[in-house]
Structures are given as C-alpha cells and as structure tokens.
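ok trying this again, last paste got cut off
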Amino acid sequence: MGRHGENIRKRKDGRWEGRYKIYNGKKGKMLYRSVYGRSYGEVKEKLSKAKLGADVQKPENLPQNANDCQGKGDNSQVLPLFSQAAEEWLKEISKTRKYSTYVKYSMVYKTHLAGNIGSCQLSATASYIWQEKIFDYISKKSLSESLQKSIFYIANQILGFANQKYFTDVPLLRMPEKPLARPKKNLASSFSKAEQGRLLGCIYQSLDKFSVAVLLCLYTGVRLGELCALQWADLDLSDMTLTVNQTVQRIAVGGHETKTILLETDPKSESSKRNIPLTGEIIKHLVQLKGNHPYVFGGKKPLDPRTMQYRFKKMLKQAEIDGRNFHILRHTFATNCVENSMDVKALSEILGHSDVKITLNRYVHPTMDLKRKQMESLLDFYGQIYGQAA
C-alpha cells in the first residue's frame, strides 16, 4: 500500500504503521522506530506523541555535513575538542608506555586523525559523522591493514579516555570487519632462486660484517632492528642458538620533526623474544667477527639500521638485483623454509609470531616452482589410485 501523511502506511497484515527517526547515542547514528494501530488516525496520533517525546528527533545542533563536526552538550556548554583530549591522552601514556610506542601513537594521531576529527567537539550528537569521515579518509589512501587498525584503536583509546575525564558519553568508533582499502601488493614478495644465487655470490665474495649480517638474516629471518641490536651475549656458540632479547630503531625526538635518535628497546611483542637454532655454516662466519666489543655488528653500540640498509642496497646493485626493502630477506627465509617442508608451527616460533596465521598470510609466498612440484606430485598419487582399482 502507498504511504499516507507523515511516513504512514498500511501493512499487508491490515495494521497501519508510522515510522519516525530517533538518535541513538550508543550507536552514534539516527535509527528508525515504528508505532502501530488499527487505523490511519490512531497511528497518526501515536506518531505525533512519539515525535514530541524526549530525545526522539535529530538534535538541532547535529552536524549537517562532514565539514561541520561541532556540537554542544545537553546544557549548551562548550565541550572539549577531540584534539584536546588527544594531547592529554598522549601526555598520560608517555608515562606508562615504551617511548617507541608513544612515538608511534603520536605519529598516527597527528598524521591520520588530527586533520580529520581533531577540531570536533566531544559531543555524542556529532560523533556519528566521525565514522564516515575516517572511512572516507582511509578509503582514499593506500594504507596497510595494520595501520588501519591502529587508526581505529588510537581513536577509540582517546574517546575512552575523554569519556572518563570529561564525563561525556561519546560512542566508540566501529572497527570495519574487513580493511576499507587494500594497498597494492608488491608481486616480488621474496627473492627468486636466481636472485638468491647472485646475492649469495656477492656475500661469499667479500665476507665482511655486513655480508655476514645479510647471511644471518637468510638463515634465521630476524628483523632488521633485532639484527642491529644483536650482542655476543645473545649467542651461544656451543649450543648453536641465538636469543632475541632486544631491538633497535631510529625514532623522532619529542618536539622535533627531523631530529631522531637510535633507541634500543624490548622486541615488539612477548612472542618476539625467542631462541633460534643456528647452523654450523653461519656460526663459522660469526666466529670470525668475534671481538672485544659487546655488539656483533655494531661494535661498542648497536648498528644503525640506516647503515645496514645502505650496505644492503649496495649488495643488491652489485648482484644486479632491483632495489628492495631489507625486510624481503625475512620473507625469503620464510618462503625457503616452507619450500623445504619445515613445520609451519616451528617456522612461526622462529619468526617470533604470536599466531601461525600471521606466518601463512604475510610471510609465506609459494613460488611457481613449488606449485609445479606440488601439482606434479599428483601424478604418483593418481597412479596409486589407478593401480589399486586395476
């Protein structure tokens, strides 16, 4: 049946239904509600009463578009801005979190949130558009899935802090079930067999500390920061093991956009603290570097990751390999282990992952040779079936 009056219609079951909008503070958006009656007049009267009820209509100060995110509280008082809450939250976590974590959160806020919702007031009536603003922003950018999660996590941490501090009731943002936009993937996720051959040729041609460092990554899959922070105390040459106890990274100094420092911290997670078995081949080359300094590759202090990356690029150029990020060594190690039938759980622990799914989804890249080998193995499989049936 057609609609009559103010959003009123007759249903197939014979009843009349009237619909109106109500603002839901917990969900941060406008929702529809319905009233029912036996006649058009009855529903119209119920609908009028419902609309006159408290808090059922869209507030007058609710933003009309994505460029207007200002709002006022129930008593028309001026509420704090999101940026104010963010700065206070960052100041608070600087006392309890690792400095590197604080810097990361600060950079994510300033780069991805401040310009979008920093000027918004902490009003529940305005918050429903924040979700759309951030969704639109992420959809237009080529941001990794991890960064997208960080943006929502930090935004909600700030809102939770603000709700406690200012006694507001701003709904938290809803995390999308799937990434809003996936960045273009680099097809060359690991070195090919030919590239590995040329790289190994360059390594063995000149076995200095930088080439041994690259070789160690190919044998263990350690991260760049873990490699640069490696100390002789972390190596048990008799037991043939390497223990990852710390990592090093270059981070920005508070109050400066360009000045950075080299900071040595605990690994990124508890699972990153791990023991890795070493082969006799890599130990033979590590022993030749043994000196009186505490750090294996840095000497008196950790090796600067930028220095290692620079030397790695020189090796790639010498091996006639296109420029790649140092992290490709970790991907190559994982891929080689899978192709050599290493147990995935064992590989996951060696890489320092908290979940086997991370190993499979991010670091394992089966080559065409492996796929072909697996397909050809079906020949023997089908042959056995045929033989049993004959």
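PB: full thing came through this time. The chain has three domains: 3-52, 63-184, 193-370.
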